[in-house]
Amino acid sequence: MVGVAPRWPRSWAALLGFLGVAAGAFGAHGLRDLVTPEQLNTWETAADYQLLHAIALLGLSTWQQSALSSRLQSWLLLACGLMVVGVLLFSGSLYLLVLTNISAFGPITPLGGVALLMAWSILLGCGLVKGNNASTPLS
């Protein structure tokens, strides 16, 4: 029997979504006259990725809760965690780069990208599992 799925992925999805909308609005209205067009584009990229992954995380949390096998649930939960870490590192480093103009934040961005790629790779594997139930290789 599969245990009760944790609710933190939904909470993180909501938080990242809320903050992503706020970041997008701040970029459009608060930063427009304060930063270069290139920096504004960087900010918008960060907000777009954050919002996209907040929505993906929300869907993923639903999939994780309905998974029939505990092993599949575990893989999906790992993907959730990697997605949260990926957004924090990817978007967070871009926000900091724009706000502080400290180039040392730049090398953090690819680490977030790698975490996001790992999350999506895990999802690919989970999606390829036939039936997503206890008789599958991931169960």
* Number of beta strands: 0
Shape: elongated
From the helix content, strand content and strand pairing, which structural class follows?
A: mainly alpha
How many distinct helices? 4
Query: Which series of helices and strands comes N to C?
Result: HHHH
Largest sheet data: none
Give the total of domains: 1
What fraction of residues sit in β-strands?
under 5%
Rounded to the nearest angstrom, the radius of gyration is 17 Å
End-to-end Cα distance, whole Å, is 11 Å
Quote the average pLDDT.
90
Low-confidence stretches: 134-139
What helical percentage do the residues reach? over 70%
Task: Write up what this structure looks like.
With 139 residues, the protein is mainly alpha-helical. The protein has one domain. It has helices at residues 8-29, 37-66, 70-100, 108-128. The chain is elongated. The termini are close together. Residues 134-139 have low confidence and may be disordered.
Salient structural properties:
139 residues; mainly alpha; 4 helices; 75% helix; 0% strand; elongated; disordered C terminus
List the helices and strands and how they pair.
Elements (H helix, E strand, L loop, with lengths): L7 H22 L7 H30 L3 H31 L7 H21 L11
Helix pairs in contact: 1-2, 1-3, 2-3, 3-4
